[in-house]
Please model this.
Amino acid sequence: MKVRDTLQLRSFAEYKEAYNQSIENPEEFWASIAEKFYWHKRWDTILEWDFKKPEVKWFKGGKLNLTENCLDRHLDTLGNKTAIIWEPNDPDEESRHITYRQLFVKVSHFANVLKNNGIKKGDRVCLYMPMIPELAIAMLACARIGAVHSIVFAGFSSKAIASRINDSQCKMLITANEVYRGTKPIKLKEMCDEALKETPSIETVIVYRRTVEPTPMKEGRDKFWYDELQKAEKECPAEVMDAEDLLFILYTSGSTGKPKGMVHTIGGYMVHTTYTFANVFQCDHLAAAGVKGQVKSVPDVYWCSADIGWITGHSYIVYAPLAAGVTTVMFEGIPSYPDYGRFWEICDKLDVTHFYTAPTAIRALAKQSLDLVNKHDLSSIKVLGTVGEPINEEAWHWYNDNIGKGNSPIVDTWWQTETGGIMISPLAGITPTRPTFATLPLPGIQPALMDPEGNELEFNSQSAEGRLAIKFPWPSMARTIYGDHQRYKEVYFSTYENMYFTGDGAYRDATGNYRITGRVDDVVIVSGHNLGTAPIENAINEHLAVAESAIVGFPHDIKGTALYAFVTLYDGKEPNDALRIEIRELVAKTIGPIAKPDKVQFVSGLPKTRSGKIMRRILRKIASKDTANLGDTSTLLNPDVVQEIMDKAL
Ligand code: WT7
Model:
């Protein structure tokens, strides 16, 4: 019996029972899950926590290595099973199928490259990589030797790379020379070279050659992946780690200031992500249960279309699927190349059974001709998933009807970079779904809806709306912000006493199902990417002509939310289109193209309170063309400016 089988709940009654047990006795509950994994030494205590400090420790004293759970443990039973199927950007290039045994060999081999280049347990390694198997190999190699990876999404700018490297003092940077996304070459190494001018902590750069383009290399510092492998031993015993040692740092936007380096630790992250993966997606289980009326003898093929540079990819492309022994797909390209049918072509070609994507992708694909869907055979699909932002009713139905053909459950999974793993979601084929609802908390998760006074709206079989908090620790929660524990405390644990605050609003129906309504802070979710308004404003304000700026979100039919910039200029500076372009480019260069505002409006002033705070509420309404009721503007320092902004709104 595979470990995953022992983790899977098989019916709604079993879910209920597990949930109740997890509330009555959380420690016993999580220990019974943790026991299913491979530990060198059992933990001394299951949970120690104090949300006031805040401090959370799971499985303290337990010794393990996550890669033994993702790789070594499977070799006897699943050694020849495909671990990763890689689908290249160019459909004419061959896919790669890597078995668990091959992955084990590759990870061990590359782990020695890290060691040979001076990387030791606890050192931070920055990864700026395209979606190729070597990204997963590099992550796992870090975990193998106890190094801490910090992945920077390969769409981010040089400045973003540099600030993240410097924040956590990475010793090594791993990248690729370049990669094609659609027809566009992305010069990753050049982006790194720009960043490396400002990152004194980097001693070595390892470069994977993805294309034949010549690559500028700096003597002594830059080394090719392949050359280093030639010099390295193949076998690499796993470093025995403590459950609370760091596994990785992943940066996420905050509503103010610089990005937050969320710290995830090994034991709890492994237990929670694998448990939630097994239960939410129910791989290799639903066919037997007859969800699609077919029993297949071939194992399931699970595909999450996210980029590994985000938490979704960390948890649900790499770590959890591998720990669960499932075949996971990695796709290098984009949904629109060579045409908007690419996702469906891949599902058809690889017989994908589980497909997990973001609402923004669904909305973009739903705009295309249905022929692009219908010319592909999607009968292998059993389960669909969404993540990253609220899904609207229309997109949900399009996905359900056209991709799931009305008989594949949709799991709408709510969670965050900070939560590490899924928190609220249906279990596929088990929990009754309701369009746009993430439904019920997973076992071990204790959500709370809070009213404006900070009181909990306890469940009383009536619907309620409020802000979403979590009352009790769960194993994969981030333990701190790297180098800034005080900020961790302020952002997450100071809004409500003894609770973790999510930053999201939520509605709960009379049967206890949750629907996430969106951010209630100054974070904007654009195409499923979490962006803080403050860093974008800071970037715009760097422009010599700009005096001040304010960024708000407005509804967009594909991106969900898009960005609108209100900008004031210094006296004598001309507002014109050239300046608009410069501002957008500056944002792309400072943060990344995803943060470029769709609209830039030049205004003579920003609406401010008497204490000097920008009244974003008003700007949000103007940007959303919802100006019928602007609310109270009497407290404004400069009420006249509002009419001017409305008159010239874009
Ligand atoms: C924010 C976290 C979780 C991995 C990807 C995003 C929003 C996430 C849902 C969902 C409604 C969702 C929330 C959350 N969000 N999933 N199923 N329904 N909203 O991770 O970048 O840390 O963003 O994404 O607003 O707070 P992230």
Q: What stands out?
A: The mean pLDDT is 94.
